[in-house]
Amino acid sequence: MELNSPITALGGVGAKRAALYAKLGIATVGDLLEHYPRRYLDLTGNMSIAEASTEAPCAVRATVTAKSPVKLVRRGLTVAKVRATDMTQDLLITFFNAKYTVDSLEVGKEYIFFGDFVRRISGGEMNSPSVLSAEESGFMPQYPLTEGLSSKMVTTQMKAALAGCVDRVPETLSTAVLKKYDLCSKGEALCSIHFPKNAADLERARRRVIFEELFDFSLAMSITKGKARSANGRAFSALSTEAFEEKLGFELTGAQKRVIAECKKDMSTAVPMNRLIQGDVGSGKTAVAAACMYIAARSGFQSAIMAPTEVLAAQHAATLERMLAPFGIKVGLLTGSMKQSEKNAVKLALKSGEISVLAGTHAIIQEDVEFANLGLIVTDEQHRFGVRQRLALSQKGGAPHTIVMSATPIPRTLAFVLYGDLDISILDEMPKNRLGVKTYLVGQDMEQRVFAFVRRFAKQGLQSYIVCPLVENEEDGLPLEAAADLAKRIAEKELSDCRIGLLHGRMRPAEKEQVMRAFAENEIQVLVSTTVIEVGVDVPNAVCMVIENAERFGLSQLHQLRGRVGRGTEQSYCVLIAGKTSPETKRRLEVVAKTSDGFRVAEEDLKLRGPGDFFGFRQSGVPMLKMADMMSDVALLESAKNAAAELLESDPTLEKPENAVLAARLEKLLREAAL
């Protein structure tokens, strides 16, 4: 049996079961070996009867002292009692319809009993537990499954796969790396990760698997970045931004000046810039992008900025027009909803070079959109675009400089995982004239007072958001009011004298755009929405953000929503309305209420929820990270990055014969990740 043998090469796997495995991304025996357990059942029996848990199934090690004959209670039901002890306490075990098991138990012999434990004054009791011999003790793997596939099936096939080809698993790490970082072999790691004998074996195996994942990822990011760096780009010559800064009408922050300087350095060479600019909403990313577009235009190149919505694209066009028009730099807009004649006119002006800066949605990556001389591309809210969309835009200019902007504060460690092919710049300073958003955490009993607060703003000509969790009417058995229901209620009752709007994910894109446009133009005073407004148009007149059932949101998401207000000159407010919360949940929400630092919020969020839930889903763009956790494995990440850097220093393209296996593996991973 070979690693690339189809999964059907294993006994018990026919076409039907192979189809179930395919749902889990498993096509070959090698794929199965890298299908790691999501957790383990501790069957070591190291817990004494006196320590046994009553909260979850547990394993205890005990010696059988006596057993009763199997009795027929009624037709179809037999019962037998077995007594055991571990010298701390006694254990009474009742077996139902388990004659073979009871008969196989020997008095005076030690076994592992696994099941639900009930504590009694005399000791403990178990009903029909699983029984293992003392030699079978260890950790039982529990695998990610799909309907129709049991953990027992996977376990059986995993044992067969390991027996058949674990000795054929190639070693992808050099002997020097294994020795330097004290790692076990790949084959040993696979055996122990699936069927560890003890906790030490499991930890050693996990460490090896996680190191390799992070090593592979570090190599992939470095190679991807290297390819971008080797491309023949365009060096910009007119790097001064003094005139641009003088006509802005406001002074740039120190952070903005620092990031512009970083971009200037990148754009001064023919090596294409590939930079992530991240910072809180309102930190001035657009002004930085505009300064770079100014440099591009004065150097004879065009720029493009791609936004996730038409309203945001239009806003970018208006903002850039205001900043760049004084220098004779023409800004154009291209979106899907524009009339065909308007699109054609923009495309013609773009192709001729008349338009120097183009703002738009994904419409700008269409095949018939041609640039005269594209030198700089900017994507806004990068996590809303796929890698392929970013690449499609970059290909329109050969090897243009690239800026990726994100208003989602990301801790540096996680940023490396998500944007490892980019250099990172951080805007960690807010403009001096910007008022902070005052944030309050209140209970559900304060809702009516909060709505009175909103009504007062509406009478002053100011606007508010009310955000609801993304639910229908019920989730997890907890009654929650959906956005549509809340909008209807407040329009009829609490805020009947206000103009109410509704926005949610099931609306058509054109409907969403229409509602956001109406809100931006103050035709709507109170916008009830789901999180679709998390990334949206700036409405300086919006001064109040109310978030219902705040406990249902991640901290970073709450912070992102809060950033929708505080964009104008008026003092703005964010009110977090929490339902029934535990002390722990309350402490979590207080993090948002007490700090406006998005990076601190992000760090706390990451600690509490892990990187998978940080964005609401396990990062599908990083398929090579199956086991690694970017918070708990930071130390290993640093070691893996160092090991990858050392390897690439001696073999930048992995062409040496000794790296052939690694190169093939990496090529496969890069293909899967679409990096």
Written description of the protein model:
- Residues 472-479 and 611-623 have low confidence and may be disordered.
- A hairpin with a 4-residue loop joins strand 4 (77-85) and strand 5.
- The two termini are 31 Å apart.
- The longest helix is centred in the N-terminal third of the chain and has 32 residues, at 199-230.
- Helix content is 39%, strand content 19%.
- With 675 residues, it is an alpha/beta fold.
- The chain is built from 22 helices and 25 strands.
- Strands 2, 3, 4, 5, 6, 7, 8 and 9 form an 8-stranded mixed sheet that branches. A 7-stranded parallel sheet has the order 13-14-12-15-16-11-17, sandwiched between helices. A 6-stranded parallel sheet has the order 18-25-24-19-23-22, sandwiched between helices.
- Helix 7 (199-230) crosses helix 21, helix 9 runs parallel beside helix 10 and helix 18 packs across helix 20 (598-614).
- The chain has 4 domains: 7-40 and 148-203, no CATH class; 44-136, Nucleic acid-binding proteins (OB fold (Dihydrolipoamide Acetyltransferase, E2P), Beta Barrel); 242-427, 3-Layer(aba) Sandwich (Rossmann fold), CATH 3.40.50; 437-595, P-loop containing nucleotide triphosphate hydrolases (Rossmann fold, 3-Layer(aba) Sandwich).
- The chain is globular.
Q: What's the structural domain tally? A: 4
β-sheet strand percentage: 15-25%
The strand count comes to 25
Could you state the CATH homologous superfamily of the largest domain? P-loop containing nucleotide triphosphate hydrolases
What is the residue-averaged pLDDT? 85
Q: Please state the structural category.
A: alpha/beta
Could you say what the CATH topology of the largest domain is called?
A: Rossmann fold
Query: At the first level of CATH, what is the class of the largest domain?
Result: Alpha Beta
* Share of helical residues: 25-40%
pLDDT under 50 segments (min length 5)? 472-479, 611-623
The CATH architecture assignment of the largest domain turns out to be 3-Layer(aba) Sandwich
- The rough form would be described as globular
Number of H/I helices: 22
- Please outline the major beta sheet: 8 strands, mixed
* Radius of gyration over C-alpha positions, nearest whole angstrom: 31 Å
Distance between the ends: 31 Å
